[in-house]
Amino acid sequence: MSPHMSSVSRNPSPRVLYVNASAGLGGAERVLLGLLKACGSAFPDAEITLILFEDGPLRELAEPLVGEVIIVPLPERWAQLGDGGRSGSSWMSRVSFWTRQFSSGTFSLWKWGRDFRRRVAKLRPEILHSNGIKAHLLTSLARPRGCSLVWHLHDFVGERRLAKRLLQVAAKRLTLGLAISEAVKADFEQSIGKQRVEVLFNTVDTERFVPQGGDEVRTRLVELSGAEGPADDSVVFVGLIATYANWKGHFLFLDAIAQCQHRAPEQNACYFIIGGPIYRTENSQVTREELHQHAAALGIQDKVNFVPFQDAMPDVYAGLDVVVHASIRPEPFGLAIVEGMACGKGVISTALGGAAEIFEDGVEGIALSSCDVNALAAALEKVVGDSKLRADLGKNARGAVVERFDQRQLPVRLLATYTRLLVAGDLSSSELDYCSATQGE
Q1: I need a surface site. Which of 17, 21, 172, 427 has the fewest CB within 10 A?
Q2: What pLDDT, in 10s, does the model give residues 300-320?
Q3: Is 215-405 in the same CATH topology as 15-83+112-203+407-435?
């Protein structure tokens, strides 16, 4: 190890700036909270700052973990910008949409970008760590000289035409990408290029997300939904926990519930859709009204309850017996899967993308190889009807999370990663590879 490496390790006090667009509490934001906590543990004397592009519940949860949270509101037109919700649009409609955005909002973004760059420069970060595509693009423009730029890669970008092209340009300033799964790493390398990318799996706080249950938490879950009904152990509580992103499988879940009611009407189950809309990108989310209407059309409105995201999400998981993850396209990771596993719940998940890397099918959860309503309904019927299977899956799942996804392991990993960056300084990805290799000599 070099003398420089030793001095950084003995007296680490880096200036680390995190940047995130949303202030909601989706999976990426919950991961960010874990990173902030881990950074403080790895570098107790670090100057940690968080910039958000909007205000919201994330700010309150982040404030105890950082020195300062700064809100730099993104202009409304640009806050709603994104191509995640436009994949079904025609080519002409997409061209028209982007033309309107750029023609009417370029000057406001230029002014905002100037202010953002000044704020970043004033903070003099040694590590600039962005979380999400919008943050990646804008931090690449604001990266100061001598600062390592880290992108936390949560998304598949291969099918996002505009984002992919912009990221290909912005990645020229990238020092290191941290992908949340092997699937995300492979997609980034194929779509953006052979930048330096490492896998850093998402983690959960296994001291907060713990196996628990009982009538009290079940009753509380029913109360949060505004429903009335039994909360005793004779009823199996099944929940889908997700943002209202239009690919999270809410309609698939409702269709499967309807099929279960037809196939096994004797099963005593109560279903929950837990979450809500948290992003501002146009056309990217379903609404609760649409879900209510679909449930009513299927005749299952009395079987399905809706609960918004809660600050105390471990209590929500505690009230469930089964956690469902029904994404209809490849999932970059699937944090709700791991949180449910940590709470010792039986998990049913479509095994697409990074979700396939999380658990062993039939041992730690039930994996679905396709987004098929018949397969999901059959899995629900099987798990709801077998209490021993639920208990076995939950026990094995808890052990797997403690071994592979425990947040207590994150400070050590972050310490090693950031220390390499601090030693390397303002280097390109290829130069960082060389620096990492020589440190081991």
Answers
A1: 172
A2: 999 999 999 888 899 999 999
A3: yes
For the chain, domain boundaries: 15-83+112-203+407-435, 215-405
CA dihedral (21, 414, 115, 192) positive or negative: negative
Fold of 215-405: Rossmann fold (3.40.50)
Query: What are phi and psi for residue 171, nearest 5 degrees?
Result: -65, -10
Contacts with 230 (C-beta within 8 Å, 6 or more apart), sequence order? none
The CATH number that domain 15-83+112-203+407-435 falls under is 3.40.50.2000
pLDDT digits (tens, 9 = 90+) for 77-114: 666 655 554 444 554 555 555 455 555 556 677 889 99
- Residue 12: pLDDT band (50, 70, 90) is low
